Amino acid sequence: MQKKSKTKIRPLQKQKKPGLEAKLSPLPESEPIQQNGKLTGKTAIITGGDSGIGKATALLFAAEGADIVISYLSETSDAKETKKEIEKLGRKCILIKGDLGRENNCKKVITETVKTFGKLDILVNNAGIHWESEKIEDISTEQLMKTFHSNFFSVFWLTKYAMKYLKKGSCIINTTSVTAYRGSDHLMDYAATKGAILSFTRSLAANLAQKGIRLNAVAPGPIWTPLIASTLSNKAVSEFGSDTPMKRAGEPNEVATCFLFLASEDSSYMTGQVLHPNGGEIVNG
């Protein structure tokens, strides 16, 4: 593969329209960046990696050559099954159980990763929780704080403690949500955390750009995961995803490909951006 040009200012050159590529100096890089083994030799942390979007992302990353650290809350049986599937793909995997709404547990995930694998290349902040609420009066301060601790503070803490080990070429990918863009009348506190993640992603991406560390996000729409079945009403579950232009909920493996793109060199010229696997909803973001 041709190395990327380090030239910041191209030499003065003039051509007749539409121009000839062969006369450009330096020549543009057109060959595929990498066709397979996109994450070979990488170590990735995936929070909430025991099931749903996190599991699908973990399996895809492993299939592309990465060793995986799965952080999960309490679903040990799911986590063990995911680990088994990763190991069948020939990659190493460790499980770290704990509530990421607590700062010490976030620090532990980072330190255990580096202790086991000696490095950290990719951080996927994916874990999250939500509850339905019909009106704001139904959201207790306890619920509000738990939602923010689990969904947003964990992203901040994990990223903060990872910075010591992330180097040029490393990347961070945050899971925000379609609700960060258009809100949700029954997931108000959840949508607020996802909005915070979106602003944090854009702000820190600009801060880290000169260090060569990329930070992007994925904003899923309705995706069929255990969180949906365990938190939404029976009616909401039965209709889940039917209001999208594609008239269905998405599958976790339809979102995992977004994370792979952002984790690999395929997205080497992207930072501070968001991908939208949401069934066709236009969100202007």
TrEMBL record:
Q: Does the keyword Glycoprotein apply?
A: no
Q: Does this entry carry the keyword Oxidoreductase?
A: yes
Q: Where is coiled-coil annotated?
A: none
Q: Where is the composition biased (Basic residues)?
A: 1-17
Which region ranges are annotated with the description Disordered? 1-36
Q: Which UniProt keywords apply?
A: Oxidoreductase
Under Pfam families, the record lists: adh_short_C2
Superkingdom of the source species: Bacteria
Query: Which Gene3D superfamilies does the entry mention?
Result: NAD(P)-binding Rossmann-like Domain
* Family the UniProt entry places it in: Belongs to the short-chain dehydrogenases/reductases (SDR) family.
PANTHER family tied to this protein: NADPH-DEPENDENT ALDEHYDE REDUCTASE 1, CHLOROPLASTIC, NADPH-DEPENDENT ALDEHYDE REDUCTASE-LIKE PROTEIN, CHLOROPLASTIC-RELATED
Name it: SDR family oxidoreductase
| Origin species | Kaistella yananensis
Q: What lineage is on file?
A: Bacteria, Pseudomonadati, Bacteroidota, Flavobacteriia, Flavobacteriales
